[in-house]
TrEMBL record:
It comes from the Eukaryota. Belongs to the stathmin family. GO terms for molecular function: tubulin binding. InterPro entries: Stathmin_CS (IPR030514), Stathmin_fam (IPR000956), Stathmin_sf (IPR036002). GO terms for cellular component: cytoplasm; neuron projection. This is Stathmin. It holds the Pfam family Stathmin. Residues 60-156 form a coiled coil. It comes from Electrophorus voltai.
Length: 158
């Protein structure tokens, strides 16, 4: 830290004109400083205010260029929007087509499964009826045999 004659203190960071920093004695806990603020000083220089250049009237050619550029931007935005909407419609069409395809596949497989179950039920029913008819024929055969045997017994008793 260095002091200059103009009251400027260099803290190795920046130069500060409107305050004075005095280093107090060093302590074991750190350093201590006294900061003295002064009222702002004016050294005769006027404040820097950047001047805005005066606006000039644009020429007809510049106006036309800006209008053409704006029209081109509008056309590009419109083309991008059309492209986006076309892609969106194409995606929707693909999704609908896929859903229809999956629906048709589901109906086809459900119909095949139903036909298989109906065929199995029909075969089981026919097998059950055939088994019942076989048992009925066996019972009739047995009943006929019992009748013949009874008639034979009746004839033998006489």
């Amino acid at each position: 830290m260095s002091h200059s004659a103009a009251g400027v203190v260099d803290l190795n960071l920046c130069i500060i004109k409107d305050m004075e920093v005095i280093e107090l004695n060093k302590r074991t806990s750190g350093q201590a400083f006294e900061v003295i603020l002064r009222p702002p000083s004016f050294d005769g220089q006027r404040d820097f205010h950047p001047t805005i250049p005066p606006r000039r009237d644009p020429s007809l050619e510049e106006i036309q260029k800006k209008l053409d550029a704006a029209e081109e931007r509008r056309k590009c935005q419109e083309a991008e929007l059309r492209k986006y909407l076309a892609e969106k419609r194409e995606h929707e069409r693909e999704v609908a087509q896929k859903a229809l395809h999956e629906h048709r596949n589901f109906i086809r497989t459900a119909k095949e499964k139903l036909e298989q179950r109906m065929e199995i039920n029909k075969e089981n029913r026919e097998a059950h009826i055939a088994a019942m008819l076989d048992r009925l024929q066996e019972k009739e055969k047995h009943a006929e045999e019992v009748r013949r045997h009874k008639e034979q017994m009746d004839l033998d008793w006489q």
